[in-house]
């Protein structure tokens, strides 16, 4: 059996500008390699408190129930929905991309009655449509939507939605996987009841944890369920007893090293400051889009609804996207993403998230795209996209 | 908000001899800090293949479906049960500790019909009782049991159980969280259909992944379900398409750094060789138990059913266990575990798992216990437990 032993791992250094994971800060990598404490060690419990405090700061919430779920962003999605929804509950899900569709799938698995509001991939849901659905379908248990749709690059406006839901006694569930730490989520300001994210996007931590916060109203809904949550692993009423100071009841073994990494990643976010960080994401995205326009790549989402963290652009007419993306990976060691579902073959998704969002990375990916496109025979003005990006930085 | 920023993390070095996490090898810690590849990068997919190969070697199975679930051991338990059980399926669960009870809880959440076979905490289930239940309750979809009960230190014999189940068209589901890599599990030899583990026990990797293997028969049961698996995150029919060579369909973002860590941990296991590793675990456990006997601590499980990886012993008569355990943590920087449920206050659980299972750790914990017990006023012969342990090593 020893013949199965793999050789030493040798990986190529990659610039991760895809839809995630994003580049991880060296300080976070170092934190991942710290020898472990036990998951019930008083020192580790203090670390959990610090992580909770910092998560509250990044979510911009006072919610006591603010934790990191022991799984990736999709585990956060499932925890959010499975804990809130009981069989027969009516849930409005806004679907304008892969992740809205995933929410709809999970609502069905939870026995919820799904009300699906659709928009084209790249568009967002008008507030009036949500309002109309809340009225028509009353009573509705929850409205679930994706703030930052990673598959389309569209940003769903959140202002006013929480109040709209609460006026109809519904809860608001928001997927902030590709926004938290990169653009404002503002849980309390928008009266969001359940908000979750992933660590591997704008927080620039490895994938493996899902930050999650519940308003007191949402927590009350979990605590007053008539049926057990169908998932034991993600049962928040039990997990709450592990994260709650003073209780610390064993539920499952916390992923200690991932918590170390998240702690350091959150420190870096807060040292920079949210406003500065958001401005950095906006600025680098603007420079990238200016450069991409020179290469014939137009944004997939409408102006005013474009994510600075995930730049989804149409590939230039007549260009086969796969070989270009492959050339970036092999020649320039840069990862960008292709399209999913109806956008497969039609878009590139270029993430500028957390440690990925810096001018040198914008210039690197533009240069690599220029080079790869020129090889396909397409006429590209050498340095044209770089000049456009630099123009944005100079302005 | 920046006032929430936590200070630099300063942790005490701990010798982790509790029920997990176990000490992590420096090579594994180093692997955790390697800069990340994307989860769909060809290089990362090759790494996944290598992890699968090495997991098969450690599980001692040829099962093509052998993966690491993106969650801790409990996520492995839930994945095993939620994918196999459909509403109304009858499942026999052997309950002789915390983890059997957890399985029973999950069966209920999956809508299964629970047949609970109980044994006292520290005892194991006689094969005749399982056989009798299979006959009485036919048709039974599955028998689920814990190979290494972390809460009691008891090892459930596995020989013959697979055949017994298959004769009655039932599947055998085995929890090997505290055995895989420390004592023989032998999935194929015992005809186990579903076996899962955790990374933070005898594999000496940080917590966060659950190795899982399914026999072709079990996979067929998953694929021929009439209803969707209630968990999207743990839906193995979809996860299989990500791990399957040639398909690699995106499901959720793999926890890249944890996979790096597991890969290195598995290399270390296979470099040592399973037989040598198992012998090491047995030898160190024997030395520890010899020393503990000198301190008045008798094993909780009967002879022949004691786990070498998790030594659960009764605390000496008249000694309050909490302060002793606390003294070990603060004075000797050694973590050991207390009892759970009916064993709370009555036992210590001393893990000698993976990198924890070495003579110097046995001597360290015995010396620390001698010292702490002497402080409680109990008569302890100085060096007596150490001499007993050394005697085992000398024999």
What would you say about this model in short?
Two copies of one chain form a homodimer. In chain A, helix 12 packs antiparallel against helix 13. In chain A, 40% of the residues lie in helices and 14% in strands.
Q: How helical, in percent, are the residues of chain A?
A: 40-55%
Q: Characterize the overall form of chain A.
A: globular
For the record, what is the CATH homologous superfamily label of the largest domain in chain A? Type I PLP-dependent aspartate aminotransferase-like (Major domain)
Mean pLDDT of chain A: 97
Element-level helix/strand string of chain A: EHHEHEHEHEEEHEEEHHHHEHEEEHH
Structural class of chain A: alpha/beta
Helix count of chain A? Answer: 13
The most extensive interface, with participating residues per chain, is: A-B, 86 and 86 residues
The quaternary organization reads as homodimer
What's the story with the biggest beta sheet of chain A?
7 strands, mixed
Shape-level CATH architecture of the largest domain in chain A: 3-Layer(aba) Sandwich
Q: What's the alpha carbon Rg of chain A, rounded to whole Å?
A: 21 Å
């Amino acid at each position: 059996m020893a013949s199965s032993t793999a050789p030493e791992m040798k990986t190529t250094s990659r610039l991760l500008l895809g839809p995630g994971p994003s580049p991880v800060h060296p300080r976070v990598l170092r934190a991942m390699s710290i020898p472990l404490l036990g998951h019930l060690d008083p020192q580790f419990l203090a670390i959990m408190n610090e992580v909770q405090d910092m998560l509250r700061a990044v979510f911009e919430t006072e919610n006591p129930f603010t934790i990191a779920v022991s799984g990736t962003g999709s585990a956060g999605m499932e925890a959010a929905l499975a804990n809130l929804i009981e069989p027969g509950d009516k849930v409005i899900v806004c679907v304008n991309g892969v992740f809205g569709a995933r929410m709809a799938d999970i609502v069905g698995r939870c026995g919820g009655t799904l009300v699906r509001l659709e928009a084209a991939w790249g568009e967002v849901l008008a507030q009036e449509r949500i309002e109309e659905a809340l009225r028509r379908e009353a009573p509705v248990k929850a409205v679930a939507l994706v703030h930052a749709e990673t598959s389309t690059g569209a940003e769903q406006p959140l202002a006013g939605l929480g109040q709209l839901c609460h006026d109809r006694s519904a809860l608001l569930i928001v997927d902030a996987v590709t926004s938290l730490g990169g653009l404002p989520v503002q849980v309390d300001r928008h009266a969001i009841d359940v908000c979750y994210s992933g660590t591997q996007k704008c927080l620039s931590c490895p994938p493996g944890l899902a930050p999650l916060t519940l308003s007191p109203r949402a927590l009350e809904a979990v605590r007053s369920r008539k049926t057990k949550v169908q998932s034991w692993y993600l049962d928040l009423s039990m997990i709450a007893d592990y994260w709650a100071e003073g209780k610390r009841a064993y539920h499952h073994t916390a992923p200690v090293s991932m918590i170390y990494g998240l702690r350091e990643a959150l420190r870096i976010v807060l040292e920079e400051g949210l406003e500065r960080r958001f401005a950095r994401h906006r600025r680098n995205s603007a420079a990238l889009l200016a450069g991409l326009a020179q290469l014939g790549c137009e944004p997939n989402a409408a102006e005013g609804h474009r994510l600075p963290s995930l730049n989804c652009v149409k590939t230039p007419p007549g260009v086969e996207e796969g070989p270009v993306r492959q050339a970036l990976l092999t020649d320039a060691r840069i990862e960008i993403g292709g399209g999913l579902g109806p956008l497969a073959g039609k878009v590139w998704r270029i993430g500028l998230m957390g440690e990925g969002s810096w001018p040198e990375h914008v210039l690197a990916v533009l240069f690599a795209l220029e080079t790869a496109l020129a090889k396909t025979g397409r006429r590209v003005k050498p340095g044209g996209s770089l000049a456009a990006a630099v123009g944005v930085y100079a302005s």
